[in-house]
Specification:
Keywords: Flavoprotein, FMN, NADP, Oxidoreductase. By secondary structure, the protein is α+β, with helices and mostly antiparallel strands. The protein has 10 helices and 4 strands; from the N terminus they run ααβααβααβαβααα.
Length: 241
C-alpha cells in the first residue's frame, strides 16, 4: 500500500543480532521518534534508560529469564513509567492512582512502538522484553529507580542476523467488531486459526512445537502470572488507590 504500512505488516521479532553497532545518528533519530509519540494530557510520564554497561546488561538478561539477546543486542532500552520528575516539579502532586499507571503503560508502549518502527525503517530489528517484570524489585535496584518509577519492559535493537517467519495473527473477524461486542465467539474461525498456528509452529525454522493458539492460551492463563506484581508496584508508589 505504502512503505509505512508495508513496514508495519512485515513486523518480525528479532532475537539474533550481528555485532555491528547502531550509529549515534540513527539512535538519536530513534529516540526522537519515541519522544514524538502522543502523550495523555501531555504528562510525558515515560523515562527511557539506555543500558550500556556490559555487566548490567548481563545481569538484566538473567533477570529477564536468561534471554541472551538482552546482553548481545547493539542497544537495550528500558521503558519506565515515571512520576518522580512530576513530584519534583509539583511536590504536592497526588500520585499512586490506578489511572496514572494505565496512562504510563499506554504512553510507554506508544513510545516504544514509535522507536521500533523508526529502527525498522533503518533496516534494524528488535524485540520487546517483558521478562524484566519477572524480577521487578531486582530490576528496580539494578537500575537505581527511585520512588514513583517502575520498569515496564525492555527493547533490544540492532542489526538482524536472522529472518524469522512472520507469525499469523488472529482473523480480523475475531478482533474487530462493529458497534457492539458479539454474544458468542465464532468457533469455526477459532478452529481454523488453531490449525493455522499448529502448522506454523510445526514448520517454522526454530523452536518448533505442537500447539495451537487455544492451547497456548490455556497454558498461559491456566495459572497466576507474576503474583508478586501488585506488591512490587505498590512498593514503588503505584496502585495505592
Amino acid at each position: 500500500m505504502n512503505p509505512v504500512v508495508d513496514l508495519i505488516l512485515n513486523h518480525r521479532s528479532i532475537r539474533k543480532f550481528t555485532s555491528e553497532r547502531v550509529p549515534q545518528v540513527q539512535l538519536d533519530a530513534i529516540l526522537a521518534a519515541a519522544q514524538s509519540a502522543s502523550s495523555s494530557s501531555f504528562l510525558q510520564v515515560t523515562t527511557i534508560l539506555r543500558v550500556t554497561d556490559p555487566a548490567l546488561r548481563a545481569h538484566l538478561a538473567v533477570l529477564a529469564g536468561e534471554q541472551p539477546y538482552v546482553a548481545e543486542a547493539a542497544e537495550f532500552l528500558v521503558f519506565c513509567v515515571d512520576y518522580h520528575r512530576h513530584r519534583a516539579v509539583a511536590p504536592d502532586a497526588m500520585t499512586g492512582f490506578t489511572e496514572q499507571l494505565l496512562i504510563g503503560a499506554i504512553d510507554g508502549a506508544i513510545m516504544a512502538q514509535n522507536a521500533l518502527l523508526a529502527a525498522q525503517s533503518m533496516g534494524l530489528g528488535g524485540v520487546y522484553i517483558g521478562g524484566l517484570r519477572n524480577h521487578p524489585d531486582q530490576v528496580v535496584e539494578a537500575l537505581a529507580l527511585p520512588q514513583d518509577v517502575f520498569p515496564l519492559f525492555g527493547l533490544c535493537l540492532g542489526h538482524p542476523a536472522q529472518v524469522p517467519e512472520r507469525k499469523p495473527r488472529l482473523p480480523r473477524d475475531l478482533v474487530v467488531y462493529e458497534n457492539r461486542y458479539p454474544e458468542r465467539l465464532d468457533e469455526a474461525l477459532l478452529t481454523r486459526y488453531d490449525a493455522q498456528m499448529l502448522a506454523y509452529y510445526q514448520h517454522r525454522s526454530s523452536n518448533q512445537k505442537h500447539q495451537g493458539w487455544s492451547g497456548q492460551i490455556r497454558r498461559i492463563l491456566g495459572k497466576e502470572s507474576r503474583p508478586f506484581m501488585l506488591a512490587s508496584l505498590q512498593k514503588q508508589g503505584f496502585l495505592l488507590k
